[in-house]
Protein 1
Amino acid sequence: MRIASGILASLSIVVALSAIGAGSVVINEVELNPTGNATKWAELYNGGDEAVEISGWVVTIVNLPWSGMIVVPDETVIPAGGYYVAEGDPQWSQDYQGSVTLVDGMRMKVDESPLIVDDGDSDFTYGRYPNGLDTDQRTDWKLMKATPRAENALS
Ligand SMILES: [Ca+2]
Ligand SMILES: [Ca+2]
């Protein structure tokens, strides 16, 4: 019994640690309507103090009935304060709105954007401002010039 509860205790510590890690990653910026026929993308940002491995995490752009999935490749790590840009498929349709969800390797939801309508067909995007702001409100998101793999800034 003592051994079993020891293992259980270690397991709970591991679960708690990974939950903390996952909680520091947000969908930070979304380009649903790039200039011309360029590829849609979503930028992830790790606002925490520790690196987070995001291998196998899935970014999904949803504009029902359509949705497009981007699976993060193996051995992908976002360092503390770092970024990762998940790029969509160039064959995807050229519609310009949707919401974006992020789930981890266990398919647990990590973050979700509000419905974003980007009808500009330009290098403007919607992103969290100030960078990484996550209060679960629509006002976290602002229209801005694209800053892939860099801090969001109002133009
Ligand atoms: Ca755009
Ligand atoms: Ca950015």
Note: The first strand starts at residue 25 and ends at 31.
Protein 2
Amino acid sequence: MRKITLSNGNTVEVECLSCALTSGLVDPDGGVVVETEHFHAHQDVAYPIRGLIILASKRHIKSLDELTEAERLDYINVMTRIRKAQREVLGIEYVYYFYNEDTTHHFHTWMVPRYEWMYEFGRSVESVRPILLHARNEMNDKENVQEVMEAIHTLTVELNDK
Ligand SMILES: [Zn+2]
């Protein structure tokens, strides 16, 4: 079991954070951006980057090759819809995708938008961690967090009102 401190200060003990989120036991800040039969998307607001989305499977699996055919289709389709929405309503030109199979949670893909300020950390995969830490440590101001929350709302509307 892992103890997780929520942003509201409450703590919950869960086996798997992804299970807790996709089952609705833990409510992500900003809410669910989009949900399909097999997937669940939200923003991890621990990293206040506008338009950063975590796309998690609902089933507790670790690896891409464990997805059923229906899940694979759902995965690529919903990821594409999210990507398109990031471009169309948030103006995000590039996204980095990241997922690791030895996670302590379960299968989830990070969709990390690229912004101009990020290029000082480089362009490759090793720039991602410093960028996330920079966002968490230096960008947690009220104004930026407000922008992040507005972007979550904008994406949610775009992905659910059609
Ligand atoms: Zn799980």
Note: The CA atoms of residues 70 and 136 lie 35 Å apart.
Protein 3
Amino acid sequence: MTRFDLRSDQIPTAWYNALPDLPAPLEPPLHPATNQPVGPDDLMPLFPMGLIGQEVSTEAWIDIPGEVIDILRLWRPTPLVRAERLEQALGTPARIYYKDESVSPAGSHKPNTAVPQAFYNAAEGITRLTTETGAGQWGSSLAFAAAQFDIECKVYMVRASYEQKPYRRILMETWGASVVPSPVADPTSPGSLGMAISDAVADAAPRADTHYALGSVLNHVLLHQTIIGLEAKDQLALAGEDRPDVVISSCGGGSNLAGLALPFMGDPEVRLVAVEPSSCPTLTEGAFEYDFGDTAGMTPLLPMYTLGHDFMPPSIHAGGLRYHGDAPIISNLVQHGRMEAIAYPQGKTFEAAVRFARTEGKVPAPETGHAIRGAIDEALAAKEAGEERVILFNYSGHGFLDLAAYDDYLNGRLIDV
Ligand SMILES: *Cc1c(COP(=O)(O)O)cnc(C)c1O
């Protein structure tokens, strides 16, 4: 057996909240103007109370609303697959499993949080959402979710991607969203995620009918993603495994990593590993300090590993990993030694992605290539040590809309930063 499926009535009915179980309490977000801890009042112009409550909740489990489960059921539970052909090609005694989040409508893990975010906003009478997107994975996920609740969706897309990568824009428009290039104020700038966040927040803050939605980083986003790891736990049991020895994911803001890893956090035998690009090495080379989530300094200050809110990463193909900071929860785990972090140049991640495609068949997103690189190196280390390690990684998305990146790699045009 190489594929371990749960029935659709085995979908988890509550999210796991890691906040009470972190190695140390999270430091609070600070107001950008006063430097005082932000309260619900500060967040209400941007987020519904349902999500603000989750941002600070100390409940261990939070029920998933039935309406949300009904939509998640369109593609969940997602498969857990044993990558036996990859194992054989590597000649490793390790057993490699991946959780396939690429089967969602938008092709990544991001709809797992887009759906509940749209739900809580709709439930509180919000009729319009704004957001930012890099290459378009988050924007397309929110566009899909907004369509499910008849909410208008406006996406500020990093200009370089808007111009070079039309397909995800078309996907967003197909789901009914309107998409504009960011920064709006400077048509000569290629833009960045931080700038697009500033645009989306500036649009939402003054309007009563509009809220803002963020695709990663915040506690409630990571909470929604824990459905990944909760399913994976049940599926590993189906595969006859007691536990993974190591859990590996790519890390941009940290949501797919948290989603898979947090449900395993309580078991000290399980190593947790973040993989990031060496061109945007937030966890491996950033400083742990309070920083803004956006470029313009409009968002609350978050305690996180950061390269500085004005950091402009080189334009690597893994657009979803080009963020200057990391989720406070992920930063907390790394700071206190509960999670490891490694960084790779993109050439090594594409090499791994192509190896995966040629053995397992599926073509991964460039972001996912980072997790695959981490898993392959772990499997090779197990071979070296002669150990039967159980490796679990997150297959966060497919690469069908990133084929131009593969073309660059296969034809020697990739800048290997
Ligand atoms: C957005 C994205 C990521 C990175 O975001 P996280 O919040 O760190 O998970 C990774 N993989 C894919 C396919 C993505 O779309």
Note: The first strand starts at residue 3 and ends at 4.
